[in-house]
Protein backbone atom coordinates (compact mmCIF):
# COMPACT_ATOMS: atom_id res chain seq x y z
CA UNK A 1 0.00 0.00 0.00
CA UNK A 2 1.37 3.36 -0.93
CA UNK A 3 0.76 5.94 1.73
CA UNK A 4 -0.56 9.29 0.65
CA UNK A 5 -1.28 12.48 2.51
CA UNK A 6 -4.67 14.16 2.81
CA UNK A 7 -3.38 17.02 0.65
CA UNK A 8 -2.39 14.58 -2.12
CA UNK A 9 -5.90 13.13 -1.91
CA UNK A 10 -7.32 16.64 -2.27
CA UNK A 11 -8.69 16.60 1.28
CA UNK A 12 -8.37 19.23 3.98
CA UNK A 13 -8.02 18.18 7.58
CA UNK A 14 -9.68 20.53 10.06
CA UNK A 15 -7.29 21.84 12.71
CA UNK A 16 -10.18 22.40 15.08
CA UNK A 17 -11.98 19.08 14.99
CA UNK A 18 -10.01 16.78 12.68
CA UNK A 19 -12.79 16.26 10.13
CA UNK A 20 -11.62 15.50 6.59
CA UNK A 21 -13.43 17.36 3.84
CA UNK A 22 -13.12 18.21 0.19
CA UNK A 23 -12.88 21.90 -0.73
CA UNK A 24 -15.61 23.29 -2.94
CA UNK A 25 -14.38 24.32 -6.41
CA UNK A 26 -13.35 27.95 -6.60
CA UNK A 27 -10.80 30.27 -5.11
CA UNK A 28 -12.44 31.00 -1.78
CA UNK A 29 -11.29 29.20 1.35
CA UNK A 30 -13.82 26.75 2.69
CA UNK A 31 -15.27 26.31 6.16
CA UNK A 32 -15.43 23.09 8.16
CA UNK A 33 -19.00 21.77 7.97
CA UNK A 34 -18.70 20.34 11.47
CA UNK A 35 -17.05 23.04 13.59
CA UNK A 36 -17.11 26.19 11.40
CA UNK A 37 -13.30 26.57 11.36
CA UNK A 38 -11.69 28.09 8.27
CA UNK A 39 -9.91 25.39 6.30
CA UNK A 40 -6.72 25.23 4.29
CA UNK A 41 -4.30 22.49 3.29
CA UNK A 42 -1.49 23.98 5.37
CA UNK A 43 -1.43 26.71 8.02
CA UNK A 44 -1.78 30.12 6.41
CA UNK A 45 1.62 31.71 5.54
CA UNK A 46 3.31 29.39 8.03
CA UNK A 47 6.93 30.09 6.98
CA UNK A 48 6.56 33.87 6.91
CA UNK A 49 4.69 34.08 10.20
CA UNK A 50 7.04 31.70 12.02
CA UNK A 51 10.11 33.58 10.73
CA UNK A 52 8.61 36.90 11.81
CA UNK A 53 7.91 35.73 15.38
CA UNK A 54 11.27 33.97 15.56
CA UNK A 55 13.24 37.04 14.49
CA UNK A 56 11.28 39.20 16.95
CA UNK A 57 12.18 36.71 19.70
CA UNK A 58 15.85 36.68 18.68
CA UNK A 59 16.00 40.49 18.76
CA UNK A 60 14.38 40.65 22.21
CA UNK A 61 16.71 37.93 23.48
CA UNK A 62 19.65 40.36 23.59
CA UNK A 63 18.22 43.05 25.91
CA UNK A 64 16.49 40.30 27.89
CA UNK A 65 19.90 38.98 28.91
CA UNK A 66 21.79 42.28 29.17
CA UNK A 67 19.30 44.43 31.09
CA UNK A 68 18.55 43.85 34.78
CA UNK A 69 15.33 42.00 35.62
CA UNK A 70 15.33 42.83 39.33
CA UNK A 71 16.53 45.87 41.28
CA UNK A 72 17.08 45.42 45.00
CA UNK A 73 17.10 48.60 47.11
CA UNK A 74 18.46 48.46 50.65
CA UNK A 75 19.72 51.09 53.08
CA UNK A 76 23.16 50.53 51.58
CA UNK A 77 22.02 51.38 48.05
CA UNK A 78 20.49 49.85 44.93
CA UNK A 79 21.69 46.70 43.19
CA UNK A 80 20.50 45.43 39.80
CA UNK A 81 20.65 41.83 38.64
CA UNK A 82 20.34 40.33 35.17
CA UNK A 83 18.95 36.83 34.69
CA UNK A 84 22.42 35.28 34.72
CA UNK A 85 23.36 37.17 37.90
CA UNK A 86 20.15 35.85 39.44
CA UNK A 87 21.27 32.31 38.65
CA UNK A 88 24.65 32.95 40.28
CA UNK A 89 23.04 34.52 43.36
CA UNK A 90 20.76 31.52 43.78
CA UNK A 91 23.73 29.14 43.77
CA UNK A 92 24.34 27.91 47.31
CA UNK A 93 24.85 24.56 49.05
CA UNK A 94 21.07 24.23 49.47
CA UNK A 95 19.73 26.32 46.60
CA UNK A 96 21.73 24.91 43.67
CA UNK A 97 18.93 22.68 42.26
CA UNK A 98 16.74 25.77 41.86
CA UNK A 99 19.65 27.67 40.39
CA UNK A 100 19.89 24.95 37.72
CA UNK A 101 16.12 25.12 37.10
CA UNK A 102 16.36 28.87 36.44
CA UNK A 103 19.48 28.43 34.29
CA UNK A 104 17.77 25.78 32.15
CA UNK A 105 14.38 27.49 31.94
CA UNK A 106 15.56 31.06 31.42
CA UNK A 107 18.78 30.80 29.43
CA UNK A 108 19.07 27.38 27.82
CA UNK A 109 15.43 26.77 26.78
CA UNK A 110 14.87 30.14 25.03
CA UNK A 111 18.12 29.94 23.05
CA UNK A 112 17.60 26.25 22.21
CA UNK A 113 14.07 27.05 21.05
CA UNK A 114 15.22 29.83 18.74
CA UNK A 115 17.95 27.64 17.23
CA UNK A 116 15.69 24.59 16.88
CA UNK A 117 12.89 26.54 15.17
CA UNK A 118 15.42 28.16 12.84
CA UNK A 119 16.75 24.72 11.91
CA UNK A 120 13.22 23.34 11.33
CA UNK A 121 12.30 26.34 9.14
CA UNK A 122 15.45 26.18 7.01
CA UNK A 123 15.33 22.41 6.46
CA UNK A 124 11.61 22.47 5.64
CA UNK A 125 12.01 25.39 3.23
CA UNK A 126 14.90 23.65 1.49
CA UNK A 127 12.73 20.60 0.98
CA UNK A 128 14.87 18.30 3.08
CA UNK A 129 13.73 14.67 3.23
CA UNK A 130 16.35 13.52 5.75
CA UNK A 131 15.88 13.03 9.49
CA UNK A 132 12.14 13.53 9.41
CA UNK A 133 11.57 11.54 12.59
CA UNK A 134 14.20 13.54 14.46
CA UNK A 135 12.83 16.81 13.17
CA UNK A 136 9.25 16.06 14.20
CA UNK A 137 10.54 14.99 17.62
CA UNK A 138 12.42 18.28 17.86
CA UNK A 139 9.21 20.16 17.00
CA UNK A 140 7.29 18.32 19.73
CA UNK A 141 10.04 19.02 22.24
CA UNK A 142 10.04 22.74 21.42
CA UNK A 143 6.25 22.77 21.66
CA UNK A 144 6.29 20.99 25.02
CA UNK A 145 9.06 22.85 26.87
CA UNK A 146 8.41 26.36 25.56
CA UNK A 147 6.05 27.42 28.30
CA UNK A 148 8.60 26.61 31.01
CA UNK A 149 10.66 29.68 30.12
CA UNK A 150 7.99 31.70 31.89
CA UNK A 151 9.38 30.49 35.23
CA UNK A 152 11.66 33.49 35.62
CA UNK A 153 8.83 35.96 34.97
CA UNK A 154 6.88 34.40 37.84
CA UNK A 155 9.93 34.32 40.11
CA UNK A 156 10.50 38.04 39.60
CA UNK A 157 6.80 38.86 39.92
CA UNK A 158 6.38 37.26 43.31
CA UNK A 159 9.77 38.30 44.66
CA UNK A 160 8.97 41.90 43.83
CA UNK A 161 5.41 41.68 45.15
CA UNK A 162 6.54 40.31 48.52
CA UNK A 163 9.73 42.14 49.33
CA UNK A 164 8.26 45.55 49.98
CA UNK A 165 9.76 46.39 53.36
CA UNK A 166 10.59 50.05 52.92
CA UNK A 167 12.88 51.49 54.11
CA UNK A 168 14.68 48.24 55.02
CA UNK A 169 14.59 46.55 51.68
CA UNK A 170 12.52 46.53 48.51
CA UNK A 171 12.71 44.69 45.20
CA UNK A 172 11.38 46.11 41.94
CA UNK A 173 11.13 44.54 38.47
CA UNK A 174 13.78 45.84 36.06
CA UNK A 175 13.62 46.89 32.39
CA UNK A 176 14.89 43.49 31.17
CA UNK A 177 11.75 41.72 32.33
CA UNK A 178 9.52 42.93 29.51
CA UNK A 179 12.07 41.81 26.89
CA UNK A 180 12.38 38.45 28.55
CA UNK A 181 8.59 38.02 28.63
CA UNK A 182 8.52 39.03 24.95
CA UNK A 183 11.02 36.28 24.08
CA UNK A 184 8.78 33.70 25.72
CA UNK A 185 5.59 34.96 24.06
CA UNK A 186 7.17 35.37 20.60
CA UNK A 187 8.72 31.89 20.63
CA UNK A 188 5.38 30.39 21.72
CA UNK A 189 3.62 32.23 18.88
CA UNK A 190 6.31 31.04 16.47
CA UNK A 191 5.68 27.42 17.47
CA UNK A 192 1.94 27.95 17.05
CA UNK A 193 2.43 29.38 13.55
CA UNK A 194 4.70 26.57 12.38
CA UNK A 195 2.93 23.79 10.53
CA UNK A 196 4.70 20.47 11.33
CA UNK A 197 3.23 18.92 8.18
CA UNK A 198 5.66 21.06 6.18
CA UNK A 199 8.48 18.88 7.57
CA UNK A 200 7.02 15.89 5.74
CA UNK A 201 5.77 17.40 2.50
CA UNK A 202 8.94 16.84 0.45
CA UNK A 203 9.17 13.22 1.60
CA UNK A 204 5.49 12.70 0.80
CA UNK A 205 5.98 14.08 -2.70
CA UNK A 206 8.95 11.79 -3.32
CA UNK A 207 6.97 8.82 -2.04
CA UNK A 208 4.13 9.62 -4.40
CA UNK A 209 6.55 9.86 -7.33
CA UNK A 210 8.37 6.61 -6.66
CA UNK A 211 5.29 4.75 -5.37
CA UNK A 212 7.61 2.41 -3.56
CA UNK A 213 7.87 3.76 -0.07
CA UNK A 214 5.35 2.22 2.25
CA UNK A 215 4.57 2.79 5.88
CA UNK A 216 3.36 -0.07 7.96
CA UNK B 1 -50.08 1.91 -11.95
CA UNK B 2 -51.10 5.19 -13.43
CA UNK B 3 -51.32 6.88 -10.10
CA UNK B 4 -47.99 5.68 -8.78
CA UNK B 5 -45.99 7.03 -11.71
CA UNK B 6 -46.70 10.75 -11.17
CA UNK B 7 -46.25 10.25 -7.43
CA UNK B 8 -42.77 8.88 -8.04
CA UNK B 9 -42.11 11.78 -10.37
CA UNK B 10 -43.03 14.44 -7.84
CA UNK B 11 -41.05 12.60 -5.20
CA UNK B 12 -37.97 12.86 -7.37
CA UNK B 13 -38.71 16.51 -8.07
CA UNK B 14 -39.01 17.18 -4.37
CA UNK B 15 -35.70 15.48 -3.74
CA UNK B 16 -33.95 17.51 -6.43
CA UNK B 17 -35.35 20.69 -4.89
CA UNK B 18 -34.07 19.63 -1.48
CA UNK B 19 -30.65 18.85 -2.89
CA UNK B 20 -30.55 22.17 -4.71
CA UNK B 21 -31.56 24.06 -1.56
CA UNK B 22 -28.87 22.26 0.35
CA UNK B 23 -26.32 23.19 -2.31
CA UNK B 24 -27.48 26.80 -2.24
CA UNK B 25 -27.14 26.94 1.55
CA UNK B 26 -23.70 25.35 1.35
CA UNK B 27 -22.55 27.78 -1.32
CA UNK B 28 -23.64 30.74 0.77
CA UNK B 29 -21.54 29.56 3.72
CA UNK B 30 -18.85 28.00 1.52
CA UNK B 31 -18.81 24.77 3.49
CA UNK B 32 -16.46 22.01 2.42
CA UNK B 33 -17.92 18.67 1.37
CA UNK B 34 -17.18 16.20 4.20
CA UNK B 35 -16.04 12.71 3.35
CA UNK B 36 -18.56 10.03 4.19
CA UNK B 37 -16.31 7.79 6.25
CA UNK B 38 -15.41 9.49 9.55
CA UNK B 39 -12.99 6.72 10.53
CA UNK B 40 -10.62 8.19 7.92
CA UNK B 41 -8.39 10.94 9.22
CA UNK B 42 -5.15 12.74 8.49
CA UNK B 43 -2.37 12.92 11.05
CA UNK B 44 -2.17 16.51 12.39
CA UNK B 45 1.64 16.30 12.46
CA UNK B 46 2.45 14.73 9.07
CA UNK B 47 -0.86 14.72 7.13
CA UNK B 48 -0.69 10.97 6.45
CA UNK B 49 -4.12 9.72 5.46
CA UNK B 50 -5.20 6.73 7.50
CA UNK B 51 -8.11 4.78 8.88
CA UNK B 52 -8.44 4.83 12.63
CA UNK B 53 -9.54 1.51 14.13
CA UNK B 54 -12.39 1.20 16.62
CA UNK B 55 -10.52 1.20 19.92
CA UNK B 56 -11.14 -0.50 23.25
CA UNK B 57 -11.48 1.97 26.14
CA UNK B 58 -8.00 2.91 27.33
CA UNK B 59 -6.33 1.91 24.05
CA UNK B 60 -4.66 4.42 21.75
CA UNK B 61 -3.83 4.70 18.05
CA UNK B 62 -0.63 6.24 16.74
CA UNK B 63 0.42 7.49 13.34
CA UNK B 64 2.58 4.81 11.66
CA UNK B 65 4.78 7.45 10.05
CA UNK B 66 5.46 10.07 12.73
CA UNK B 67 4.26 8.30 15.90
CA UNK B 68 1.82 11.08 16.85
CA UNK B 69 -0.95 9.85 19.12
CA UNK B 70 -4.06 10.18 16.99
CA UNK B 71 -6.65 9.09 19.49
CA UNK B 72 -6.75 7.58 22.94
CA UNK B 73 -10.13 6.28 23.91
CA UNK B 74 -10.72 7.28 27.52
CA UNK B 75 -12.50 5.18 30.09
CA UNK B 76 -15.76 6.79 31.30
CA UNK B 77 -14.53 10.11 29.90
CA UNK B 78 -17.49 12.42 30.52
CA UNK B 79 -18.20 11.46 34.15
CA UNK B 80 -14.58 11.46 35.26
CA UNK B 81 -13.76 14.72 33.53
CA UNK B 82 -16.89 16.32 34.95
CA UNK B 83 -15.99 15.31 38.52
CA UNK B 84 -12.45 16.66 38.11
CA UNK B 85 -13.69 19.88 36.51
CA UNK B 86 -16.11 20.60 39.36
CA UNK B 87 -13.22 20.05 41.78
CA UNK B 88 -11.08 22.42 39.68
CA UNK B 89 -13.75 25.15 39.84
CA UNK B 90 -13.85 24.99 43.65
CA UNK B 91 -10.05 24.91 44.00
CA UNK B 92 -9.62 27.75 41.51
CA UNK B 93 -11.99 30.00 43.45
CA UNK B 94 -10.23 29.27 46.75
CA UNK B 95 -6.77 29.70 45.19
CA UNK B 96 -7.59 33.16 43.93
CA UNK B 97 -9.32 34.48 47.02
CA UNK B 98 -6.80 33.70 49.77
CA UNK B 99 -3.11 34.70 50.17
CA UNK B 100 -0.55 32.49 48.47
CA UNK B 101 2.68 33.67 50.08
CA UNK B 102 3.58 35.73 53.10
CA UNK B 103 6.70 36.68 54.99
CA UNK B 104 7.64 38.08 58.36
CA UNK B 105 10.79 40.05 59.09
CA UNK B 106 11.65 41.98 62.23
CA UNK B 107 8.01 42.13 63.28
CA UNK B 108 6.66 43.19 59.89
CA UNK B 109 4.34 41.11 57.74
CA UNK B 110 3.70 41.08 54.01
CA UNK B 111 1.55 38.79 51.92
CA UNK B 112 0.33 38.48 48.36
CA UNK B 113 -2.24 36.64 46.27
CA UNK B 114 -1.70 35.57 42.66
CA UNK B 115 -3.61 38.61 41.40
CA UNK B 116 -1.65 40.78 43.86
CA UNK B 117 1.59 39.78 42.11
CA UNK B 118 0.25 40.88 38.73
CA UNK B 119 -1.17 44.06 40.25
CA UNK B 120 2.19 44.98 41.75
CA UNK B 121 3.81 44.81 38.31
CA UNK B 122 1.01 46.96 36.86
CA UNK B 123 1.55 49.59 39.55
CA UNK B 124 5.30 49.64 39.04
CA UNK B 125 5.58 50.56 35.38
CA UNK B 126 5.53 46.96 34.17
CA UNK B 127 2.00 47.00 32.79
CA UNK B 128 2.60 44.64 29.86
CA UNK B 129 4.28 41.98 32.01
CA UNK B 130 1.57 42.47 34.63
CA UNK B 131 -1.11 41.74 32.05
CA UNK B 132 0.85 38.69 30.82
CA UNK B 133 1.11 37.31 34.37
CA UNK B 134 -2.59 37.98 34.96
CA UNK B 135 -3.47 36.29 31.67
CA UNK B 136 -1.32 33.17 32.07
CA UNK B 137 -1.91 32.63 35.81
CA UNK B 138 -5.51 33.82 36.29
CA UNK B 139 -7.52 34.44 33.10
CA UNK B 140 -6.35 31.52 30.91
CA UNK B 141 -6.81 28.94 33.71
CA UNK B 142 -10.30 30.35 34.36
CA UNK B 143 -11.13 29.99 30.66
CA UNK B 144 -9.59 26.51 30.56
CA UNK B 145 -11.75 25.33 33.47
CA UNK B 146 -14.87 27.32 32.53
CA UNK B 147 -14.91 26.23 28.89
CA UNK B 148 -14.36 22.62 29.91
CA UNK B 149 -17.32 22.79 32.30
CA UNK B 150 -19.56 24.25 29.60
CA UNK B 151 -18.35 21.70 27.04
CA UNK B 152 -19.09 18.83 29.42
CA UNK B 153 -22.56 20.11 30.28
CA UNK B 154 -23.34 20.40 26.57
CA UNK B 155 -21.75 17.04 25.79
CA UNK B 156 -24.02 15.23 28.26
CA UNK B 157 -26.82 15.53 25.71
CA UNK B 158 -27.05 12.74 23.11
CA UNK B 159 -26.41 15.31 20.38
CA UNK B 160 -24.34 18.20 21.78
CA UNK B 161 -25.44 21.58 20.35
CA UNK B 162 -23.34 23.67 17.97
CA UNK B 163 -22.02 26.09 20.63
CA UNK B 164 -20.14 23.16 22.16
CA UNK B 165 -18.17 22.89 18.89
CA UNK B 166 -17.04 26.51 19.12
CA UNK B 167 -15.92 26.11 22.74
CA UNK B 168 -14.21 22.81 21.96
CA UNK B 169 -12.31 24.47 19.10
CA UNK B 170 -10.90 27.19 21.36
CA UNK B 171 -10.21 25.01 24.38
CA UNK B 172 -6.71 23.87 23.28
CA UNK B 173 -5.63 27.53 22.97
CA UNK B 174 -6.64 28.28 26.56
CA UNK B 175 -4.65 25.21 27.63
CA UNK B 176 -1.49 26.49 25.92
CA UNK B 177 -1.60 29.82 27.77
CA UNK B 178 -2.71 28.50 31.14
CA UNK B 179 0.55 28.17 33.08
CA UNK B 180 -0.30 27.36 36.67
CA UNK B 181 2.29 24.58 36.87
CA UNK B 182 4.99 26.92 35.55
CA UNK B 183 3.94 29.58 38.07
CA UNK B 184 4.24 27.05 40.89
CA UNK B 185 7.87 26.30 40.02
CA UNK B 186 8.48 30.05 39.84
CA UNK B 187 6.91 30.50 43.27
CA UNK B 188 9.13 27.75 44.66
CA UNK B 189 12.23 29.55 43.41
CA UNK B 190 10.97 32.89 44.75
CA UNK B 191 10.33 31.21 48.09
CA UNK B 192 13.90 29.99 48.38
CA UNK B 193 15.22 33.42 47.37
CA UNK B 194 13.11 35.18 49.97
CA UNK B 195 14.01 32.66 52.67
CA UNK B 196 17.49 34.22 52.67
CA UNK B 197 16.11 37.50 54.01
CA UNK B 198 12.93 36.66 55.88
CA UNK B 199 10.75 33.91 57.31
CA UNK B 200 8.43 32.66 54.60
CA UNK B 201 4.82 31.94 55.53
CA UNK B 202 3.15 29.68 52.92
CA UNK B 203 -0.50 30.60 52.37
CA UNK B 204 -3.47 28.29 51.84
CA UNK B 205 -3.56 29.13 48.12
CA UNK B 206 -0.07 27.66 47.69
CA UNK B 207 -1.29 24.19 48.68
CA UNK B 208 -4.58 24.53 46.81
CA UNK B 209 -2.72 25.52 43.63
CA UNK B 210 -0.48 22.46 43.83
CA UNK B 211 -3.55 20.24 44.02
CA UNK B 212 -5.08 22.19 41.13
CA UNK B 213 -2.00 21.47 38.98
CA UNK B 214 -2.67 17.74 39.32
CA UNK B 215 -6.43 18.10 38.83
CA UNK B 216 -5.83 20.01 35.57
CA UNK B 217 -3.46 17.27 34.40
CA UNK B 218 -6.18 14.76 35.25
CA UNK B 219 -8.74 16.67 33.19
CA UNK B 220 -6.40 16.62 30.18
CA UNK B 221 -5.85 12.90 30.45
CA UNK B 222 -9.48 11.90 31.05
CA UNK B 223 -11.20 14.03 28.40
CA UNK B 224 -11.88 12.41 25.03
CA UNK B 225 -12.58 15.14 22.49
CA UNK B 226 -13.12 12.70 19.62
CA UNK B 227 -16.08 11.19 21.46
CA UNK B 228 -17.73 14.64 21.65
CA UNK B 229 -16.88 15.49 18.03
CA UNK B 230 -18.49 12.25 16.86
CA UNK B 231 -21.84 13.18 18.42
CA UNK B 232 -21.87 16.94 18.00
CA UNK B 233 -24.42 18.93 15.99
CA UNK B 234 -22.75 20.12 12.79
CA UNK B 235 -22.48 23.73 11.66
CA UNK B 236 -23.87 22.41 8.39
CA UNK B 237 -26.44 19.88 9.60
CA UNK B 238 -27.53 19.00 6.05
CA UNK B 239 -24.10 17.59 5.36
CA UNK B 240 -23.96 15.65 8.58
CA UNK B 241 -27.06 13.77 7.46
CA UNK B 242 -25.54 13.42 4.02
CA UNK B 243 -22.45 11.85 5.53
CA UNK B 244 -24.66 9.51 7.55
CA UNK B 245 -26.49 8.28 4.45
CA UNK B 246 -23.26 7.64 2.61
CA UNK B 247 -21.95 5.65 5.54
CA UNK B 248 -24.97 3.33 5.42
CA UNK B 249 -24.51 2.88 1.70
CA UNK B 250 -20.85 2.16 2.21
CA UNK B 251 -21.43 -0.57 4.77
CA UNK B 252 -24.36 -2.31 3.06
Describe this structure in words.
The complex is a heterodimer of chains A (216) and B (252). Chain A has 216 residues and is an alpha+beta fold. Chain A folds into 2 domains: 1-41, no CATH class; 45-210, Butyryl-CoA Dehydrogenase, subunit A, domain 3 (Up-down Bundle), CATH 1.20.140. Helices cover 54% and strands 10% of the residues of chain A. Chain A has 7 helices and 6 strands; from the N terminus they run E-E-H-E-E-H-H-H-H-E-E-H-H. Chain A has helices at residues 46-66, 83-90, 96-125, 132-145, 151-162, 176-193, 197-210; strands at residues 12-13, 20-22, 70-74, 77-81, 164-165, 169-173. In chain A, a hairpin with a 3-residue loop joins strand 5 and strand 6. In chain A, helix 3 (96-125) crosses helix 4 (132-145). The model of chain A has no long low-confidence stretch (mean pLDDT 89). Chain B has helices at residues 4-29, 77-95, 114-123, 127-155, 162-177, 180-195, 204-222, 225-231, 237-251; strands at residues 33-34, 40-42, 49-51, 60-62, 69-72, 101-105, 108-112, 199-202. In chain B, helix 2 (77-95) runs antiparallel to helix 4 (127-155), helix 2 runs antiparallel to helix 7 and helix 4 (127-155) runs antiparallel to helix 5. Chain B folds into 2 domains: 4-72, no CATH class; 77-231. Chain B is built from 9 helices and 8 strands. Helix content of chain B is 62%, strand content 12%. With 252 residues, chain B is mostly helical. The chains are: A alpha+beta (216), B mainly alpha (252). At the A-B interface, strand 1, strand 2, helix 3, helix 4 and helix 5 of A face helix 1, strand 1, strand 2, strand 6 and strand 7 of B.
